[in-house]
Amino acid sequence: MRWFYFALMGLTIMVGGSLGFNREYRDSEDGFKTQLYVIHRRLVTVKNSLIEFRKQHGRYPNNDEGLLALESLKAASLEFDDDIVEASRDGSYFQIVVGKSGLLSPWLVPYTYENRAGFPPKAFEFSPVNDDPRGHYSIRVDEGVFVYSVGAMINYRRYVALLWEMYSVRGLTLAVLLLWIVLFVRTPRKKPACSVAASVATLLGSAAALILATMVVIVPLGATTYMNYFTSFPRPKMLVVYTALLEKYRQAGVIKEDTFQKTMKALEEETAQITRQEGD
User: Fold this and answer.
1) Beta strands at 97-99 and 102-104: parallel, antiparallel or unpaired
2) pLDDT per residue as tens digits for the range 110-161
3) Which 3 state secondary structure label does DSSP give 194?
4) How far is C-alpha 280 from the chain's CA centre?
5) Which residues, other chains included, contact 176 with Cβ-Cβ below 8 Å and sequence gap of 6+?
6) What are phi and psi for residue 127, nearest 5 degrees?
7) For 184-217, what is each residue's pLDDT tens digit?
8) What gap in Å lies between CA 203 and CA 56, rounded to an integer?
9) CB hemisphere CA count around 65 (13 angstroms)
10) Rounded distance between C-alpha atoms, residue 94 and residue 107, angstroms
11) What is the DSSP letter of 107?
């Protein structure tokens, strides 16, 4: 019976390890970390430009002016064009892009700017910034002034879900493995009725099974794959969230009706250009 539990330990390591430490988990985790790091660096750049704007004008841009008021940052960034669209398709462009709809993330979705000065707290009760005190996808520029990325927000939530799933699998594997270990230890030894040679063969076979199970876990961990961390393919789903937030800003009076309409029209034009480019 002890050897039965011993075999179950090996099987648990093999199956649970393959599931909890598989390459897809590792690559996805690395991908999300890279995305969040890059977006944070871009947000820091925007923050610095906003601070410079305040030094020059004595105020921050209002919500209707938005990030397109940052002339120095716009001059240092590239314009939205066919080359940028092409680069975004394979995830090879990480910089800030200037579009008609605003300053764009690598997913070609505008960064969102909030200037809460002069507005009641209720006007921003729906803001994703409120759920991000540690700045995973947003950055605090000053009191009541924030910038965030809808794409990073969506992917941060996916990252959290991935970690929850990954560590749940690993925790369950460990719990089951500990159960087999306890049963193995508590099961009394029985006097072997077979020959010494047979016992040695059994021991070697069990050891070989454990080594094989361990290799099944370790070998995939050493493999590497190439991932495109930024592409424009998630853009449609991200735009659904972005435009829904834009509508809430309009309803709360944070942005004016003409600003809302102008941004929506710009998004449509950018989407049409991306669609046309993908069709070529």
Assistant:
1) antiparallel
2) 999 999 999 999 999 999 999 999 999 999 999 999 999 999 999 999 889 8
3) coil
4) 30
5) 12, 16
6) -65, 135
7) 777 777 655 555 555 555 555 555 555 555 554 4
8) 78
9) 10
10) 9
11) T
Q: What is the DSSP string of 120-157?
A: -GGGGTT-GGGG-TT-SSEEEEETTEEEE-HHHHHHHH
C-alpha span between 246 and 93 (Å, rounded): 25
CB 274 within 8 A of CB 235: yes
pLDDT mean across residues, the chain: 82
DSSP secondary structure string, 200-266? HHHHHHHHHHHHHHHHHHHHHHH------S--STTHHHHHHHHHHHHHHHHHTTSS-HHHHHHHHHH
**CA separation (Å) from 259 to 56, 253, 263?**
24, 11, 6
Q: CA–CA separation, 86 vs 45, rounded Å?
A: 24
Helices 82-89 and 257-279: angle between axes, nearest 10 degrees: 70
CA distance 98 to 71: 10
Helix (H, G, I), strand (E, B) or coil at 20: helix
User: What pLDDT is recorded for position 18?
Assistant: 67
| C-alpha count within 13 angstroms, C-beta hemisphere, residue 71 | 4
Decide which of 253 and 18 is more confident: 253
Q: How far is CA 275 from CA 48, 86, 242, 270, in A?
A: 33, 11, 18, 9
pLDDT digits (tens, 9 = 90+) for 243-265: 999 999 999 999 999 999 999 99
Which residue is it, tokens 């454990």? 210
